[in-house]
């Protein structure tokens, strides 16, 4: 399909490209008759303005890049919906890139957004240890940036998070109050800072109830259903005695729960399961999963509001927003009511 350009209109009317461009922009220095001829010809030829070219002329593209670590679960899509609800209302489109939990791909996505000349970047990281040089370089170049959920710990950046430590603490406390004493924690990757905070909450909850922390009760895992299944196999093979699992994320919890059920473990009677993330995945498994549910749509909206602030003034102070997350108590952890 051939796109009609200003050059085509200029050729048709034997006018300069500059004159046609100014006529289309309603330049007051162009004669009325010339404007009318240009507009008529543009309509007849089916000319449509190139919004990217027009925006670049004024130093912006009216686009924001959103970089997410994965799109296997509904987590990212719910946040993106929140982002779009704010940005679309402000005439800004969204370019989405997925990093596949790979920091090198994330770096490529950051550079791609630069090439696309986006007005700002909203990002959820693969690793808080990597790509910090990239974030610093972009910030020094006054690229507006906002981080959500997974953040570059130790950097002064605008961010939107939930309190991973506190919610993990309360979730483990719930398991203990349900009668669990041997609680396994399936920990996420070390380079995701949320993993460190949730593990800290787990340990402090045990300490509050005078339950000794045992290294064999905390397994470092990945993020997938398969990782959860493998973790369950390791626990069984090693003969670890446990009556509850607190997993870093829903995918781990579901993978572990499905495997334990395959091994004829009763959930929650023999093993209670609880987790973090709170997407629809937690409600479409049996039994339904107890989980911490961050307000993902709201997280996206807040991130979008912050990026609008940064676009308006890249030197505006960075803001730190902590949203409240709800603990959804469901059948997977309710030992007492199942008895």
TrEMBL record:
InterPro entries: HTH_LacI (IPR000843), Lambda_DNA-bd_dom_sf (IPR010982), Peripla_BP/Lac1_sug-bd_dom (IPR001761), Peripla_BP_I (IPR028082). It comes from the Bacteria. GO terms for molecular function: DNA-binding transcription factor activity; transcription cis-regulatory region binding. This is Transcriptional regulator, LacI family. Coiled coil: none annotated. Residues 4-58 form the HTH lacI-type domain. SMART domains: HTH_LACI. Keywords: DNA-binding, Transcription, Transcription regulation. It comes from Bacteroides faecichinchillae. Pfam families: LacI (PF00356), Peripla_BP_1 (PF00532).
